[in-house]
């Protein structure tokens, strides 16, 4: 299997709120990482090309990679987009619809902590017009694998309906909040009509990976230059697909138990 780095970013900001700071990359470091990608010979392709290859379509170009961004922070519009445009790079942005500023009933702090700077409805429409692929990331960013089936359905299918109503066209790419899923959750995603879904797994994807559990490499604030460089060369991480481990299953059981006791594990504080 040929390793395909699917890079996962959240916020790109010089002054993030404390809760997202560990998952935020500074603008200068992000620009440097794009240069590292270019120098490595990686070719950034749209997510749909990877998904098509995984579903038996045309093979990927050699040395392919994908850029993805989760949640819908406003800095994607102000900081990330200009850098992507400068390099001519495609990307997929997964949006939590309940956090979009300006939506009916929106109140700051109801989805992400107060002070979080999220995209507005207008900015999202602009990004769609610029050619950024907009994907779904649920309505309220829950841990889907701890929820009852009806709640999962509302979060997964409801998010898609909201995005399609706003953008006026179909959206097909989904990302699991916190990277958490389960066989039952993935079946709900398939039933809702999403053609792909990304997880985390801290691993490379590949043309043999699972389209509804695509592995990604999370770029964090403390991701050092050498680790990122090694990712661009296809080393320093396993290659998916690989089976779900006992540790992952045990972690899910623990979080489900806490949810049943009404003391849910706080994935983000």
TrEMBL record:
Q: What Gene3D superfamilies is this protein classified in?
A: Glycoside hydrolase/deacetylase
What keywords sit in the KW lines? Answer: Signal
**Protein name, per record:** NodB homology domain-containing protein
PANTHER family attached here?
POLY-BETA-1,6-N-ACETYL-D-GLUCOSAMINE N-DEACETYLASE, PTHR34216
Compartments reported by the entry: Secreted
Membrane-crossing ranges are: none
**Entries under Pfam families matching the protein:** Polysacc_deac_1
- Lineage of the native species? Bacteria, Bacillati, Actinomycetota, Actinomycetes, Kitasatosporales
Q: Where is the NodB homology domain?
A: 63-269
Q: Which InterPro entries match?
A: Glyco_hydro/deAcase_b/a-brl, NODB_dom, Polysacch_Deacetylase
């Amino acid at each position: 299997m040929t390793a395909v780095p699917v890079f996962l970013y959240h916020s790109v900001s010089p002054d993030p709120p404390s809760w997202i700071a560990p998952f935020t990359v500074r603008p200068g470091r992000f620009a440097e990482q794009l240069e590292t990608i270019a120098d490595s010979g990686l070719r950034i392709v749209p997510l749909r090309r990877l998904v098509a290859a995984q579903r038996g379509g045309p093979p990927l170009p050699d040395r392919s990679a994908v850029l993805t961004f989760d949640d819908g922070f406003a800095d994607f519009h102000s900081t990330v987009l200009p850098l992507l445009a400068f390099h001519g790079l495609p990307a997929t942005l997964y949006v939590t619809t309940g956090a979009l500023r300006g939506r009916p009933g929106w109140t700051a702090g109801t989805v992400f902590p107060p002070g979080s700077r999220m995209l507005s409805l207008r900015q999202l429409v602009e990004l769609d017009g610029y050619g950024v692929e907009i994907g779904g990331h649920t309505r309220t960013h829950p841990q889907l694998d701890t929820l009852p089936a009806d709640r999962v359905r509302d979060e997964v299918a409801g998010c898609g309906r909201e995005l399609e109503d706003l953008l006026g066209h179909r959206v097909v790419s989904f990302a699991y909040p916190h990277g958490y899923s389960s066989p039952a959750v993935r079946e709900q995603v398939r039933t809702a009509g999403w053609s792909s879904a990304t997880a985390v797994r801290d691993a490379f994807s590949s043309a043999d990976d699972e389209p509804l559990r695509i592995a990604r490499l999370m770029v964090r604030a403390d991701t050092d230059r050498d680790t990122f460089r090694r990712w661009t060369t296809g080393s320093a991480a396993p290659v998916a697909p690989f089976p779900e481990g006992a540790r992952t299953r045990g972690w899910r059981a623990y979080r489900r138990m806490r949810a049943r006791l009404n003391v849910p594990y706080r994935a983000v504080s």
